[in-house]
Write a structure and sequence with these properties.
The protein has about 450 residues and is of the alpha/beta class. Helices cover about 50% and strands about 15% of the residues. Bound molecules: NADPH dihydro-nicotinamide-adenine-dinucleotide phosphate.
């Protein structure tokens, strides 16, 4: 680690103790930006990076709610308004028991660079709660969402801060949150994205992150004269991102063979085809069941339960060509990255945010595989959220084809920008540097223009 990164990180750790995911995200970006700060000392003089690291505003609040049995529950609520240099704060809400300040700060920090890459005018934010929606009745979910919004509504607005979904927050939760916002404010605005189609949502928004991640992979392959046709693909997760990653992989002629949830993963050597994917959609989105049920329906597949005593994840230890981590942060460690490379995987396109830890990233870079980091590869979700905002402002809806072609264009632009930026800073093929530097430059220049605020 260089002197610059080391001293920056020492300060970040002292000011933000016990936030390891945030430290990790800052380290990765700082390592890429060193070369930029050397080339353009004005950014260092204006302390642009130091300012980006400090959220513009952090809101934490109590979320008390009463369930159908009359029992009172208290959760923590958060919204991190990280950076508004290029547009209103924008980023998802995560409802998961692991949610804490450090995790949301890492996500908000990543979001600043990601949103900048989309070419759309969106700043960065993230929020959520330690509430666990898993296995809860619709009534409990509604009561919690309403309670959450009775505080959040003061801080957000269509030109201020526009949240969306993330882990544990899908169409159902966005609906309850939107309903409460509308009631409290007495106005119908595009204050959230991921809305239902008949009340302000955009076509392709549910599909956008997964589709975009596969489009990004296709662009990376194109640089080597390759396509996804016939490629065997490992996919983790089985939620929103994983589902639509598999759908687009199938459309592009690839063969997805794995999916997972927090209890375990399935491996289907014959491939997860359209019919099997429909079963997954029903299992996960309607019945809200576990991935293990897949092998009851398709007994040729193998289910492996999570084994916390292992120092690697067996999902990443199958022979394959491409990998699409789409569950959560740090799901690929150094051992997993070694296994992937050893098993012939030459492309990793990250649907999840920061799914690979720093050891894993270095192994991918050292082995010169095509590695698309989350802030570039999964930017399709927020990009279509940006398109949903644009449609809301126009009070007009684009067709499915229109939104999908804009999404494809944006993913191509992000790829080209990352590819060319990596090259122009002397690290050709390094999409990590490309994404961090290109994302940074737009925000940094806006901050320089707007003065010290
Ligand atoms: P969902 O809640 O729809 O699905 C999450 C999936 O990942 C579930 O299968 C879940 O399993 C699994 N998972 C979650 N946490 C863990 C864990 N700690 N260990 C193992 N498995 C886990 O979320 P999304 O699909 O929306 O999000 C997945 C990833 O993609 C996240 O990193 C998110 O930040 C990122 N992302 C999402 C975007 C979006 O538009 N939704 C946009 C950009 C990035 P289980 O059900 O058992 O918890």
């Amino acid at each position: 680690m260089s002197e610059f990164v080391n001293s920056l990180l020492t300060e970040v750790k002292a000011k933000n103790p016990a936030e390891p995911e945030f430290h990790q995200a800052v380290q990765e970006v700082a390592e890429s930006l060193e070369i930029v700060l050397e080339r353009y000392p004005e950014y260092r003089k204006s302390k642009i990076l130091e300012r980006i690291i400090e959220p513009e505003r952090v809101i934490t609040f109590r979320v008390p709610w009463v369930d159908e049995q009359g029992e009172i529950h208290i959760n923590k609520g958060f919204r991190i308004e990280m950076n508004s240099a290029i547009g209103p704060y924008k980023g998802g809400l995560r409802f998961h028991p692991s949610v804490n300040l450090g995790i949301l700060k890492f996500l908000a920090f990543e979001q600043v660079f990601k949103n900048s890459l989309t070419t759309l005018p969106m700043g960065g934010g993230k929020g959520g709660s330690d509430f666990d929606p898993k296995g809860k009745s619709d009534l409990k979910i509604m009561r919690f969402c309403q309670a959450f919004m009775t505080e959040l509504f003061r801080h957000i607005g269509p030109n201020t801060d526009v949240p969306a979904g993330d882990i544990g927050v899908g169409g159902r939760e966005i609906g309850y949150l939107f309903g409460m916002y509308k009631k409290l404010r007495n106005e119908f605005t595009g204050v959230l994205t991921g809305k239902g189609l008949n009340w302000g949502g955009s076509l392709i928004r549910p599909e956008a992150t997964g589709y975009g991640c596969v489009y990004f992979a296709a662009e990376m392959l194109k640089t080597k004269g390759e396509t996804l046709e016939g490629k065997k693909c490992l996919v983790s997760g089985s939620g929103n991102v994983a589902q639509y990653t598999v759908e687009k992989l199938l459309q592009m002629g690839a063969k997805p063979v794995t999916l997972s949830d927090s209890n375990g993963y399935i491996y289907d050597e014959e491939g997860i085809d359209r019919k099997k994917l429909d079963f997954i959609l029903e299992l996960k989105n309607v019945r809200r069941g576990r991935i293990s049920e897949y092998v009851e329906k398709y007994p040729n597949a193998v289910y492996t339960e999570v084994n916390p005593s292992l120092n690697y994840n067996p999902l990443w230890n199958h022979k394959a060509d491409c990998a699409f981590p789409s569950a959560t942060q740090n799901e690929i460690n150094g051992n997993d990255a070694q296994n992937l490379v050893k098993n012939g995987v030459f492309l990793v396109s990250e649907g999840a945010n920061m799914p690979t830890n720093i050891d894993g990233v270095n192994i991918f870079l050292d082995n010169k595989i095509l590695y698309g980091p989350g802030k570039a590869a999964n930017a399709g979700g927020v990009a279509v959220s940006g398109l949903e905002m644009a449609q809301n402002s126009m009070r007009f809806n684009w067709s499915r084809e229109e939104v999908d072609s804009r999404l494809q264009m944006i993913m191509k632009d992000i790829h080209r920008n990352c590819f060319e930026t990596a090259q122009s800073f002397g690290t050709p093929g390094n999409y990590v540097n490309g994404a961090n530097i290109a994302g940074f430059l737009k925000v940094a220049n806006a901050m320089m223009d707007q003065g010290v605020i």
